[in-house]
Amino acid sequence: MNFENGELIFFALAFFLAALSAAGYLFSLLVKKVTLAKISTWVLTGAFFLLTCYLIAAAINAAGFTNLGSRALFSFYAWSACGVYLVLQFKTKTRLLGAFIGPLVLLFVIIAAGQEAGKTILPPGLQSWLATMHLALSIVGEILFVLASCAGAMFIMQNSLLKSKKLTSMSRLLPSLGDLDRINHLCLLWGFPILTLGILAGAFYAAFVWKDLWTYDPKVIWSFIAWVVYGVLLHQRLALGWKGFRMAALSCVVFLLLLLTYILVRFCS
Question: Which of 33, 56, 118, 195 gets the most CB atoms within 10 Å of its CB?
Answer without folding.
Answer: 195
